[in-house]
Specification:
Blueprint: E1 5-12, H1 16-34, E2 38-43, H2 47-53, H3 59-67, E3 70-75, H4 90-100, E4 105-111, H5 124-127, E5 131-137, E6 149-153, E7 156-160, H6 167-182, E8 187-192, H7 198-214, E9 219-224, H8 225-234, E10 241-244, H9 246-259, E11 267-271, E12 283-287, H10 304-318, H11 321-336, E13 339-340, E14 350-351, H12 354-368
Parallel strand pairs: 1-2, 1-3, 3-12, 5-10, 8-9, 8-10, 13-14
Antiparallel strand pairs: 4-5, 4-11, 6-7, 11-12
Helix pairs in contact: 1-10, 1-12, 6-7, 8-9, 10-11, 11-12
The structure holds 3-isopropylmalic acid and magnesium ion.
3-isopropylmalic acid binds near residues 77, 91, 94 and 250.
């Protein structure tokens, strides 16, 4: 038996439990086939947690997340909790996990599968072969900056947030981007709005300094966030690794996701820094899509983003590159056979439920051996 890998599974809200159900089956298969010893512990997060405990993440669950070898998250949120105070909203649970685990580097690959080329709203020649890695800073910036809130000043009401970054916060995420680029095509585009924001000027300076000092073999360019959005739909093939702050990364990754045809296909990994004593890297894996409350419980959700997130877990947390390759291949084969969930459905293809899609991946895995 290999050493047990303790996975905390937080399915969350909406379609979260359905898509995680399929991941569980893939994990069971891996345990059987590879003797990989994944031990799953399940717990609540988001609205599901709020309904039971009155908070979106309990201290006990957070402690479990710290103790686990990796966390797999489904999705959080839904209209049911719209009137709940901000600090208890489902999203607050997710943000707390990211912050408390210090998961500063969010890797969001946007990969266009050949079989899905027609699912994109862009022309096939624009998106064919696309392989972009967005590295989003995840634990700082305007998502967490203080002060934030509402105020009355001279009788006028205000709402405000603070965009703030320290040099180490920028440096460490840029490092992740440069290191990834080394294993890819060696190109990084750093994105901010240095034309209007002081923190953007600072971001650019810190990234450039690190580049000059340690990564001059990497081709670095800088781009304003609005231009980057435009370039992503105009000519996405120009990008390899994009590194950007928390808010721009949120926006740009949704945009990049749609190049691939559906948000339902995109996985992500959120990583922290290596513990100098244990060597462990805190990690959480989640699909980029949300909780899709409108289709929850109907078996319509696409489990592939979650299954691909699990594949990222194999690769980044457990050095199981061969197994991850096999899983990615199984997903590609399923798509090549014309099997689709509703979100990526197109003419002449065969529509499957969430469960049947998970099943189809298992069948392909079995074939690959
Ligand atoms: C994401 C989501 C989250 C974010 C929400 C659910 C808080 O949009 O992971 O991209 O804004 O980071
Ligand atoms: Mg988002």
């Amino acid at each position: 038996m290999s050493t047990p890998k303790n996975i905390l599974m937080l399915a969350g809200d909406g379609i979260g439990p359905e898509v995680m159900g399929e991941v569980k089956r893939v994990m069971d298969w891996m345990n059987d086939k590879y003797d990989s010893s994944f031990v799953i512990e399940e717990d609540l997060v988001g609205g599901a947690c709020y309904d039971v405990h009155g908070v979106a993440l309990t201290d006990e669950t957070l402690a479990k997340a710290h103790g686990a070898d990796a966390v797999l998250l489904g999705a959080v949120g839904g209209p049911k909790w719209d009137d709940v105070a901000r600090e208890h909203r489902p999203e607050a649970g997710l943000l707390k996990l990211r912050k408390e685990m210090d998961l500063f580097a969010n890797l969001r690959p946007a990969l266009v599968f050949d079989a899905l080329i027609d699912a994109s709203t862009l022309k096939p020649e624009v998106v064919r072969g696309l392989d972009i890695m967005i590295v989003r800073e995840l634990t700082a910036g305007v998502y967490f900056g203080q002060p934030r809130g509402e105020d009355i000043r001279d009788g006028v009401a205000y709402g405000f947030d603070t965009q703030i970054y320290s040099e180490p916060e920028i440096d460490r995420v840029a490092r992740v981007a440069f290191d990834l680029a080394k294993k890819r095509t060696g190109k990084v585009v750093s994105v901010e709005k240095a034309n209007v924001m002081e923190s953007g000027v600072f971001w650019r300076r810190v990234v450039s300094k690190l580049h000059a000092a340690e990564y001059s073999d990497i081709e670095l360019s800088h781009m304003y966030a609005d231009n980057c959005c435009m370039q992503l739909v105009r000519w996405p093939g120009q990008f390899d690794v994009i590194v950007t702050d928390n808010l721009f990364g949120d926006i740009l990754s949704d945009c990049a996701a749609m190049l691939t045809g559906s948000l339902g296909m995109l996985p992500s990994a959120s990583l922290g820094s290596k513990d100098p004593v244990t060597g462990k890297i805190p990690a959480m894996y989640e699909p980029v899509h949300g909780s899709a409350p409108d289709i929850a419980g109907q078996g319509k959700a696409n489990p592939l983003a979650s299954i691909l997130s699990y594949s990222m877990m194999l690769r980044y947390s457990f050095d199981m590159g061969t197994a991850a390759d096999k899983l990615d291949q199984a997903v590609q084969n399923v798509l090549a056979h014309g099997l689709r969930t509703a979100d990526i459905m197109s003419k002449g293809m065969h529509e499957l439920s969430t469960r049947a899609m998970g099943e189809a991946v298992l069948v392909e895995l079995e074939k690959l051996g």
